[in-house]
Amino acid sequence: MVRPMLCITSMVAALVACDRSAASSGDDDGGGATRAQSPGRVGSCDRASTTGTCSEYAGAYLAQNEVLLTSSCSKLGGTFVYAECPNTSVVGACTLSTGEVRKFYGTGASAYEPERARQECESSFHGGWQAR
Length: 132
Hints:
Helix content is about 45%, strand content about 25%. The protein has about 130 residues and is an alpha+beta fold. Strands 3-1-2-5-4-6 form a 6-stranded antiparallel sheet. The chain is globular, with a radius of gyration of 21 Å. Mean pLDDT is about 80; it is low at about 1-40.
């Protein structure tokens, strides 16, 4: 009875080790699990025309909240794409505790002045401001 249990335990350990090896090598089974956790993957919700902002999401935050982020963006008046926010007319960026980077724009109907954007970042979002 001990030998069959030893064989089963050994097979499970081998499968787990094989699975970890495939995940760390970047192999993808086609299901997107490895790709979804890729640190280089970026998505953004561009609301520059309505609010003067665009939010970038990446890494674990994007992977864990992808369904919510993609579905809520249009409800907030934005467009979700798998790319960084546009970099033209950016007055600064606010990094939130979640890892979201919110860019503020200085053109359009909802344009921000740099000082107003900094104040909103620091007081409303408790984020780290970086002027452009």
